[in-house]
User: Fold this.
Amino acid sequence: MTTVLTTSKLQRLGYERYELASTLGVSPVDERLRSLTLEFERLPLDPYSRNDGRYRRFGRGVLLPWNAEFRWMPDAVANMPDGTTVSFNDYRQGRHNPEFSGLVRQMPGLTEGIRSNSLLAELIEFDFAQTAWNEAELCWPVHVGVHLLKLSVDRPGGRAVASPDMLHQDGEPYTFAHLIYRRDAEGGENVIATPEYAGNLPEAVADEGILDRFVLHQPLASYGVKDDLVSHYVAPVTVADGAETAERAVLLIDFTPMAQRA
Assistant:
């Protein structure tokens, strides 16, 4: 059963930053990291991106807390008019994303190369070890959401925008973000604020409401948030001076107990 960390910064303040390249012993030439990088380089366009430069895949798994066993859930499959099939997963944010409020979005599923990557398995294990649950929750499976999200700008003067483009909460109790790479990018600043500012841009938040600002630069620079304690935001990405294009690739992992609700 997972260790419950009740005194970590994540549990006390609602967020914590990590440098997992050193923690997990992953070098820049690690083949598993290179494999994930290739997967991000060929991500399909987010079908709900409105010329915002977002590329995405999404998959779901189940983790059993009592023995740390993890299994991927199957994707849904749709038959296309040209005779091909595509895999996808429903993604629901309910009221937590005002840009798609109440909409069930169908996101491209994960490739087998992603699912079988042992570095991803290590990241899921590390992230879950930072979470804390009560004993009743630990008697149920935990739903694990895995997002590959790339913000890509194809010209100087353009920008790529995350959704929602505001401070927000996700709805899942815990979410962790891991930078995979950043190329010729400006912007992409992460902002952590107190939860009452969800729905606002950071510039509208009083100084005392901002808990932290930082930019993820190196592969596997990471952070986690405890959703009920904070809101969070990532600024748009633009192209650095002298470059023609820019990319910021982030792996997101979230956890939600599948406990029975009244």
